[in-house]
């Protein structure tokens, strides 16, 4: 977050920005007291969100998704029109029948693939995609998107190379087998992923990009010491990758859209001998994206990325509401309280140039 860049940007004259209300196409809301604490942040910023199913236990059935959806709706601030878009957690045992039920229910908008062991609460995830073929065939037939945590789990692959290896080992063979399957490559972090999605021709593939992968490279994790609040999965990469993600997000290409991957973890579990992966950005997500687009001189491309491309990809109407951002410096709170548990937002204590009105 660089104030100098902002002042020398050729768009420094822009003081106010009104956009169609953005949606968050990748969000962790958790459950219980944590849900109560974090949901108002997302509901203030976004009209809708694709809600990740990696609860404990995971949301693997349409029935569980219906119950989770009701808990989210019950936790919304009075008067909020925020709409949770539910997902199922793919397992080795997900049946074609379960996919049919999900499609018929109408409130399930995707099925999430977590390679077993890849990230937070992924233990029940898929061990071998071949076991899911009946479910994938049904998803392809019904147009229900497969959402990918795109990293291999092979311990022999360097942690910084796991996304690139996923493209070669999993994604290319999968898309050759099921060319009609709608796919969202979630939270992409590398030049290779951005390029792979850009070059997909007419194929049904999109990608979400987080604010933190647009703003930071991997140095952020090690600046003057180990900084656990910058640790997420897939982990931040080298500067060349950050630059490729900024180029993709600001390109106007409708395959790329906003997905915060905001993932709350208790401060004590981040600042830990084995710290949890995940950055919390729901509090200030649109401001963070505005910062990234402003630094790239591309504020005029923010609305497409944040408010239109995702809705178009998922076949949902664009928002009829608007939000307004003002160029007004403010300081991100160092932490906030989630029912007695402190949570540290990304960049807590630092200044941001844009503020949501
Ligand atoms: N992104 C993360 O680092 N963590 C996410 C899981 C995920 O999206 O991989 C979480 O649920 O905490
Ligand atoms: Zn993930
Ligand atoms: Zn996530």
UniProtKB/TrEMBL annotation:
The protein's annotated pathway: Pyrimidine metabolism; UMP biosynthesis via de novo pathway; (S)-dihydroorotate from bicarbonate: step 3/3
EC identifiers of the protein: 3.5.2.3
Keyword Zinc: yes
Domain (Amidohydrolase-related): residue spans on this chain: 24-333
Family: Belongs to the metallo-dependent hydrolases superfamily. DHOase family. Class II DHOase subfamily.
Subunit and partners: Homodimer.
Name assigned to this protein: Dihydroorotase
Originating organism: Chitinasiproducens palmae
Taxonomy of the source species: Bacteria, Pseudomonadati, Pseudomonadota, Betaproteobacteria, Burkholderiales
């Amino acid at each position: 977050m660089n104030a100098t860049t902002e002042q020398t940007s050729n768009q420094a004259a822009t003081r106010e920005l009104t956009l169609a209300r953005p949606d968050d196409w990748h969000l962790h809301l958790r459950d219980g007291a944590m849900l109560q604490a974090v949901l108002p942040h997302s509901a203030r910023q976004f009209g809708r969100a694709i809600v990740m199913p990696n609860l404990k236990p995971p949301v693997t059935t349409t029935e569980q998704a219906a119950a989770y959806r009701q808990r989210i709706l019950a936790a919304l601030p009075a008067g909020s029109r925020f709409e949770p878009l539910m997902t199922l957690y793919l397992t080795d045992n997900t049946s074609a029948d379960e996919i049919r039920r999900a499609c018929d229910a109408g409130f399930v908008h995707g099925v999430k693939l977590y390679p077993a062991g890849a990230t937070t609460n992924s233990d029940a995830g898929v061990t071998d995609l071949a076991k899911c073929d009946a479910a994938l065939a049904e998803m392809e037939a019904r147009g229900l998107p497969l959402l990918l945590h795109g990293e291999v789990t092979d311990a022999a692959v360097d942690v910084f190379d796991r996304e690139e290896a996923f493209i070669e080992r999993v994604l290319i063979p999968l898309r050759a087998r099921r060319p009609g399957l709608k796919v969202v490559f979630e939270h992409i972090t590398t030049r290779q992923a951005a390029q792979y999605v850009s070059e997909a021709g007419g194929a049904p593939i999109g990608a979400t990009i987080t604010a933190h992968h647009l703003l930071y490279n991997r140095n952020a994790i090690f600046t003057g010491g180990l900084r656990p609040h910058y640790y997420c999965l897939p982990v931040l990469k080298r500067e060349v990758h950050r630059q490729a993600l900024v180029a993709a997000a600001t390109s106007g290409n409708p395959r790329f859209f906003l997905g915060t991957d905001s993932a709350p973890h208790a401060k004590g579990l981040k600042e830990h001998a084995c710290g949890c992966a995940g950055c919390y950005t729901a509090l200030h997500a649109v401001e963070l994206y505005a910062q990234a687009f402003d630094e790239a001189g591309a504020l005029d491309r923010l609305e497409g990325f944040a408010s239109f491309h995702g809705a178009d990809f998922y076949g949902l109407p664009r928002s009829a509401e608007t939000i307004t951002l003002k160029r007004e410096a403010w300081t991100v709170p160092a932490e906030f309280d989630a029912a007695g548990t402190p949570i540290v937002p990304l960049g807590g204590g630092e200044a941001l140039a844009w503020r949501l009105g």
